[in-house]
Structures are given as C-alpha cells and as structure tokens.
Amino acid sequence: MAGSRTGTTGATGRAGGQASLDDLGTPLHDVTFCVLDIETTGGRADDGGITEVGAVRLRGGECLGTFQTLVNPGLPIPPQITVLTGITDAMVVPAPRLGPVLAAFVEFVGDAVIVGHNVRYDMGFLNAALEHHDRPRFANRVVDTCALARRLVRDEVPNCRLGTLASRLRLPHQPSHRALDDALATGDLLHVLLERASGLGVLGLDDLLALPTMAGHPQAAKLRLTEHLPRAPGVYRFRDRGGRVLYVGKATDLRSRVRSYFSGDERRKVGQLLRETEAVDAVVCSSTLEAAVLELRLIRALDPRFNRQGRARGGQAWIRLTDEQFPRLSVVRTVKGPPADHLGPFPTHRAAARVVEALQSALPLRRCQGRPGSREAPCAPAQLGRALCPCAGDLDAEVYARVVDAVRTGWQRRPDLLLSPLAEQMDRLARDERFEEAADVRDRAGAVVATLRRRRRVDALRASGRTELALPGGAGAVLEGGVLTAAWGPDGQVRSLDLVAGVPPPADDGPDAPPSAALTAEVLCVAGWLDRAAGRVRVVESTGGLRSPWPALPDFAARRPRPTAVPATPPPDRSRPARPVAGRSGVATRRPALTTAGRRR
Q1: 11, 160 contact by CB (below 8 A)
Q2: How far apart are CA 482 and CA 474, in angstroms?
Q3: Domain GIY-YIG spans what residues (predicted)?
Q4: Which of 286, 527, 567, 593 could join 104 in a cystine, given CB atoms 3.0 to 4.6 angstroms apart?
Q5: Ramachandran region of residue 103, left (φ > 0), alpha (ψ -120 to 50) or beta?
C-alpha cells in the first residue's frame, strides 16, 4: 500500500537481534587516533636510546592536541644520527629522562588507537622502555599507515616511505626526521588513506584494521558480489550455487557490512560461509527497526544453515499450574487452559525447569504427583518443611489455595511475593557463610526476574494496540500489538512489511492468548530496539498506550568487585617546578612534556 507520513529527524539507532556476525565496529569518524613518532640513537630497542617523542591526537579530522619533548637517552648520539635528525648531545643533556616522559606520554595516549608509519619500530622501543620501567605495555589497537599505503596507493608511488608519500600526495606537513613533524605528516597521510578506504566500503575501525590483509583473503575475488549493494540499512542474504539461502543478516550500511566479511575474518564459520557463497542479495529497509524485524522473519521462514540465533524453534516450553484440586507446577510444550495459569514461553525445557525450581523454593507448592489421601505420610519435601503435600489427606484446601493464588499474583502483578522469599533465603545462607548455596539461590532468583521482565515487556507491547511511531531520520512505523505492520522512510512512501520479502508476521491470537515463541521473539526485538532508541523516538498515536509496568524488578545478577589499580611505579611529583627545555624553535617548554590543544587549519 502507498501513502505518506512525516516523522522527526535524528540519529539512526542500532537495531537489536542476533549479533554473531553483524558487528560493524566503531565508526571511523568517532575513533580517536593518536599518531606518534620517535627519534632514537639508532641502536636496539633494549638499549632505550629514545631521543625525542612526538604525537598528535586526532578525531573526526580535527587535531585535539599535540605532545612533543626531547629525551635524555643517557648515552651519546652517533654523529650520523645527528646529521639525519639534527638532534645533538647538547640538546638532550638538559632534557628529562625517559621515566617521567613515559608517564606523561601514556596519559596523553589514553585509550586512543595508536597510528604510526612502520609503527612496529616505534612500538618496539616504547614497549621495551615501559617494561624497563616496570610499566605495562601498550594494549591499544594499532594502525600502520605503511601497510595501509601498500594496500591503497602502491600503484601511485615508487615506494611507501613517509617522505615519498608526503611529497607525491602533497600532504600539508612534510617529514623532517623530527618526531612531531613526522607525526603530523603521518596524521595527514592517515586522513588521505581513510578517504581512499571509504571507497572500498571501510567505515568502521574493525574493517580498517583488517584492510591490509583483505587483498590476500582467499575469497577476495568474490568481492564483485557486493558491487551492487547500496549504502543503506537493510537485510542481506548469502546464497549458494543453487540459490538456497545460507545466511541472513542485517546492517545499517549493506555495502560496508557485507564487504567486511572479506577482511581476513579467521572464524571457521565465516570462511565456510564465503566458500559456499555464489550470490548476495539485499532488501533495503526504511530503518534499522524494519531491518531487525525483517531479519527475524526471514530466518524463521528460511531457516538458513549458518544462522544460529533468531530461529523460532518448535521446542519452546511453558510452566503450567495444573488444574488439579491441589495444583502443582509442570513444564509443558503447549498451552492448555487459562493463560493466567501459564508462564513462558521458554526457549528450552531446561530453562523452564530452572524457574520451576526457583518458584518451589520461594513458595511451598506441592512437588508430588500422588492422589490426595493415597498415602499414610506426606512426601519427603513436606516432611522437610519445604512443601505442602496432600498425599496424607490432612492438607487444608483453603490454606493451599492461598499459596496457589500467591503464585498467580506473583507472576502477574506482585513479583515481591516470589522474589522476597528468595532474597531472604540468599541473605540467610550468606550470613551462615554457605556461599555456594547462596549463589545458587541468587541464580534461581535471577532466572525468575529475567522471565518476569521478558513477560512484562511482551505483555506491555501486546496491550498497546495500534501505535504509530516517528523514528530517527524521518522514518516511521506502525505497530499492531507490538508487531511491526507498516514502515516508511523519509520519502513518506508506506509499505506493508509482510509484502516486502514475502514473509508474513507471526500469528497473534490476541492479548488474552499466550504468545508463540516466534511472536515473543519479534515483540522482544521491537522492545529492545525501542529501549535503545527511546530518546530519539516519538509516539505519534497509540490506542492502548505504551507504559512501563510497576513496580520495578530487583536485580539479582552477580556483581564483580572493581579491581583496584596499583601503579607499578610512583607517579611523578608534579608539585615540583619543571625545568625548561630548549626546543628547536628556541621557545621553552615545560618538563617533561606539554599537550597543547589545537585545530587543523
């Protein structure tokens, strides 16, 4: 169907769902790079002969700050090195030693991605110096502009030396064998290489790191299969020679996402997928919400061999309160009886049984299956005081009915009736130093909370009726009971989602009927997407209203203690005035180093 709608603009949020093969990585315009260069005495890294350190921090094409200092290496500088760099013994004698410089330099680098030209040389000296001063080595991600240049501009230059590249590419800064000048030139080169890489669909950090090895990928010839893919959100399908779908995935940028599979990913699953792939097609979507939902529906309909998540299998389970005189909890495959007497669905029988154990620990529900009055004595759990048992015929039906009502009320609107007893058990066991048993109760309580939270999210969306949403980027969508039924992009052209790829939505028998596993998966996908994009989504209209259930559920997740950072060496004494060090320009700088904010002109 066709029509027009208007929506608010904003940044596109990332859709939920499977994440096994679909992480684009950090966008390059959001990555902070620290481009560095060092000058040395020309010896080995173990000798620690660093004479100068220079660096520049870059993000989004802007210079965030620079770092430059001479270093006293504690050994003479060979004449040939002085001729090359212009650094003399007289210049480094008043300079700080390497220890204080490292402390300031590590702070300047932070968690930025380190960039250098032939960066292994620089990192070898820096890491050796850090180890010598009992400091941890750099764990940052590293980009080598020399390797990138060989991949992207090798046919345009006679060699990939920094001076040659700077001259042939006419970079704003030219290297001079001084640390900061060379770092600035390397930063200019990085920007040129990033622009070239974007033409190959490289928009994320992970793809950039893998780019130097992409040419050697065994399936690199199949990159031609991606040439027709647009730079838009949507769903892609890998097909084999017979046209059968091997894998379904979603992306915010179809071209970039699919091309990233050819970037040297060593996972066996990806390699096998690419070996069998003979075609790639895509369905362009109006938003990442539409892409996430369409991915789930295609996986459910096609059951691709390489998809491990998002499948609506037939093995779901439910917890049921039986319709006996004295009801008990059982795990069943289908819903029979009032929906209020069922909890689920669960992905596996084992997951449902875990929650049954937790509920039986919280309330004294019967665990036996015998007929009332069929035995002379109650069953073992009842004798231990853990359950009520009608087997001996002496159980008051009204007393047991109150327990059953607590179960129904607990998983509908009063979760404290189920969770408070478990919290008390956990605290009591912890006080008695029975920590393993307390942890087991905690895990059971966490399983109950996860189940109730999932049920709340599904019930809230299913009760919302028809909801029209204005999505980021001028897109829009219509939900019917939490199921996406229509979507449109900034152009306002509306389309029915079940006609996009020939896959219908999961069946919904109404808010009073229990949802199927497929319906639960899709509604949870929509709920997760709305949670992540809540600040950028506007509700235009809702017949039932979107609301959060109350009260909030407690968190029983295990908490890891925060590690206490113990520095390997004492920090430098910054209260003492730093001695001036003469720089190349004759202007004094403070010891051990300065960072000065600036903007590239």
Answers
A1: no
A2: 21
A3: 231-308
A4: 593
A5: alpha
C-alpha pair distances (Å), 67 with each of 96, 107, 577: 14, 11, 19
**In angstroms, rounded to a whole number, what is the distance separating the alpha carbons of residues 361 and 438?**
12
The Cα 232–Cα 315 span in angstroms is 35
DSSP, collapsed to helix, strand or coil, labels residue 196 as helix
Catalytic residue flag (residue 173) = no
Sheet with 50-59: strands ordered across? 142-144, 113-116, 32-40, 50-59, 62-70, 594-596
Helices (H) and strands (E) in the chain, counts: 17, 19
- Catalytic one among 117, 132, 173, 177? 177
pLDDT at position 83 is: 92
CA 293 to chain CA mean position, Å:
19
Structure-block tokens of residue 380: 């073992």
User: Of 63, 230, 28, whose CA–CA distance to 148 is shortest?
Assistant: 28
User: In sequence order, which residues have a C-beta less than 8 Å from that of residue 583 and are 6 or more positions away?
Assistant: 68, 70, 589
Query: In the chain, what are the domains?
Result: 28-202+582-596 (3.30.420.10), 205-302 (3.40.1440.10), 321-459 (no CATH)
Element (DSSP H or E) covering residue 234: strand 234-239
| Residue 324, token pair as written in the block | 């006996």
pLDDT for 126-177, tens place per residue? 999 999 999 999 999 999 999 999 888 887 889 999 999 999 999 999 999 9
> Residue for token digits 């990442």?
288
Average pLDDT value over all residues in the chain: 81
For residue range 416-452, what is the model confidence (pLDDT) as tens digits?
Answer: 888 889 899 899 999 998 988 899 889 888 888 888 8
C-alpha span between 341 and 349 (Å, rounded):
17
User: CA-to-CA distance for 289 and 507, rounded, in angstroms?
Assistant: 19
What's at 236, amino acid-wise? Y
